[in-house]
């Protein structure tokens, strides 16, 4: 970043001399060069010096690197374009999004470092891409990140939930498809309002506020917007009672599905979430009307399975 600010005229030659190092047999040289290029992409100087396409293409070429750290840093660099040259993200949107999806699907990523960077970078890029570029990938990304909502790693929970919230802004054009994804994630997002990590709770509040307008229930949308502000403390029991009332008024046919998802969390390793799940079910059953109450399997509830 210091070189981007103070050594602009020297950068073209430095970049030219570093590019061969991206093919070095030594991991350390590839990591260092990729890290340098990744940070460089966070500055508009690469655009001013007409280096953007060169550096970007070389970052994309690192996606198959044998070193996990190189693949992760390459995605960080591509995400940094949103800060360094946001006006260029639209032009290269399809390629950038494809790179992020490839990162999410990385098969040799045991600690999910590449996936974490892909989710973080996607959130940066989404504010600048064309809607048509994201629409074709929307469903795949939503399905792919869903398992991370319950990851043992708080960074993965946070990044995946924030990304899900950011994706929802593109749901209006294909509301039916993404609405299904919102319903699939709704119980998890509501339960993780009791997550032990404050940053994950904040992410859930954000995602629910973003998803509210796509749910077709004005009362629920208003509740999310009013009660889930970052600066507002939440009375969880009272909030969930009212949420369940709106859910059963608007989607009574969803009762069995909502109960089944909650039952999964009876065995959660997080005690507050384990406690929230039966309360969630209790409020659902409390507010369901007689017509839809046969959906409730009492034997299943009593056994907690």
The helix count comes to 18
- Give the overall average pLDDT: 92
Gap from first CA to last CA: 54 Å
Give the C-alpha Rg: 22 Å
Number of strands: 0
The main β sheet shows up as:
none
Count of separate structural domains: 2
Q: Which percent range fits the helix content?
A: 55-70%
| Secondary-structure element series | HHHHHHHHHHHHHHHHHH
**In one word, what is the shape?**
elongated
Percent in strands? under 5%
Alpha-beta classification: mainly alpha
Q: List low-confidence stretches.
A: none
Describe this structure in words.
The chain has about 300 residues and is mostly helical. The chain has two domains: about 1-145, Leucine-rich Repeat Variant; about 150-305, no CATH class. The protein has 18 helices and no strands. The mean pLDDT is about 90. InterPro entries: ARM-like, ARM-type_fold, HEAT_Maestro, Maestro_heat-like_prot.
Keywords, please?
ARM-like; Leucine-rich Repeat Variant; 305 residues; mainly alpha; Maestro_heat-like_prot; HEAT_Maestro
Write the layout of secondary structure elements.
Layout: H1 2-6, H2 11-18, H3 27-40, H4 45-48, H5 52-60, H6 68-84, H7 86-89, H8 93-104, H9 113-125, H10 131-145, H11 154-167, H12 175-191, H13 198-211, H14 218-227, H15 236-250, H16 255-264, H17 271-287, H18 298-303
Helix pairs in contact: 3-6, 6-8, 6-9, 8-9, 8-10, 9-11, 11-13, 12-13, 14-15, 15-17, 16-17
